[in-house]
Amino acid sequence: MVSPEKATMGGELWSVFDFARRYRLTIREQNRLLMLFGPVASAAELLANARRTQLI
After folding, report:
1. What angle do CA 26, 27, 31 make, to 5 degrees?
2. Per residue in 40-52, pLDDT tens?
3. Predicted confidence band of residue 25 (pLDDT cuts 50, 70, 90)
4. Quick one: residue 36, left, alpha or beta (phi over 0 = left, psi -120 to 50 = alpha)?
5. What is the C-alpha separation between 21 and 16, in angstroms, rounded?
6. In this structure, is the dihedral angle defined by the CA atoms of residues 38, 13, 45 and 21, taken in order, positive or negative?
């Protein structure tokens, strides 16, 4: 049986805070994702919508 968290089309659900920390997003980008999705979103949605600044 599939849990409700895995039932979403994007796979597992992530905390936006954990996602931002893992992918080293800025606070501004973290806040933008929070406004878009709230505190939790699927991994696919976060990956598709996150913007990273160029380090080079």
Report:
1. 120
2. 999 999 999 998 8
3. very high
4. alpha
5. 9
6. positive
Q: Which amino acid is at 34?
A: L
How would you write the chain as a 3-class SS string? CCCCCCCCCCCCEEEHHHHHHHCCCCHHHHHHHHHHHCCEEEHHHHHHHCCCCCCC
State the Cα–Cα distance between residues 41 and 50, nearest whole angstrom: 12
Q: For 24, left (φ over 0), alpha (ψ -120 to 50), or beta? A: left
